[in-house]
Amino acid sequence: HARKTIFSGIQPTGVPHLGNYLGALQQWVRLQNEASPDTTLIYSLVDLHAITIRQDPTQLRQWKKESFAMLLAIGLDPKRSIIFHQSDVSAHAELMWILSCGASTGYLGRMTQWKDKTASSSSGSGGNLKLGLFSYPVLQAADVLIHRATHVPVGHDQAQHLEFARQVANGFNETYGGDVLLPPETLISPAKRIMSLAEPKKKMSKSHANLKSRLLLTDSDDAIRGKIKAALTDSDASLSYDPGQRPGVSNLLDILFYSGEMIDFEDQVELAKHLEGHSIKALKEKVALTVINVVAPIRADFDRLLHDEAALEAAAHDGAEKARKSAQVTLESVKKAVGL
Ligand code: ADP
Ligand code: NA
């Protein structure tokens, strides 16, 4: 069978939350643990993406360290998976420049996430929006193409960007001949989006100011109980799964389902039926217990890892070295193809 290379990334823009875990990170670990020995796994903390929005330098450095520790705490093994900070491997940015010379601004302008950001920006027309934010799908394409990734596990929100990466690869190959770049397959996460606890029509995100909107993988048992207790639901006392009409309750059922009940129930509707007769309060208590079971062991490992700075630095250094080697091969053939 053909050799696989799995690549994915997460922005070090805060402590990863339960949405990141259920929607992405959990799958990274599963792919690692189920991979055949000749599969390469590469996971990046995409700090160059993080600065598409202005960051406080001291805060960003801290988040980078914490996010690295978190990737180890969830069960990624640096002996098995290449784990690195994107900015440690300059080939990502170099390839991005070369690819951006062939990327269409029209196509980029039609990306949903860009359109959302232009629509919500105060300047309306997007006059104050930054070039890096506009072109970050090109950097994302470079991230996966530089490592000749065959499979890229992402959440639904990233599917469009991965399609762009495939088109960039095919376009490059058509222009310069041969198969210098490898269009990757997208592995869409089996979990749906986890929503904000405070505003269940918005996704749970690192970037929301309201700290009660997300469950962090570092939260104490009490913090988890408190946030879930305060989660916005509705006035209907019964339990049913209906994300359109009952986003709050349905989000709690999603969290319960993907945090453990997936093994026992076909889907969230079946799970809701099983829980019929429970009050919302009882549901919340059950969700809190289940989430605590997921988070507590991760949090304990994270606390331990974060205090061993020397080990963290050594692991990041080692990951960067391996990632540089992986990237160099592609960068050389791309430069040769272009005439550089
Ligand atoms: P965030 O939006 O919280 O800053 P990132 O952009 O760094 O997260 O995304 C990292 C990964 O986590 C991506 O694969 C993304 O699809 C996934 N992800 C982010 N938020 C959620 C969510 N609320 N539910 C499910 N998956 C999510
Ligand atoms: Na995101």
UniProtKB/TrEMBL annotation:
One MF term in the entry's GO annotations: tryptophan-tRNA ligase activity
GO cellular component, one term: mitochondrial matrix
Cross-referenced PROSITE patterns: AA_TRNA_LIGASE_I
CDD domains (alphabetical): TrpRS_core
Keyword list, A-Z: Aminoacyl-tRNA synthetase, ATP-binding, Ligase, Nucleotide-binding, Protein biosynthesis
Record GO biological process: mitochondrial tryptophanyl-tRNA aminoacylation
The protein's Enzyme Commission number: 6.1.1.2
Family designation: Belongs to the class-I aminoacyl-tRNA synthetase family.
Name the UniProt record assigns to this protein: tryptophan--tRNA ligase
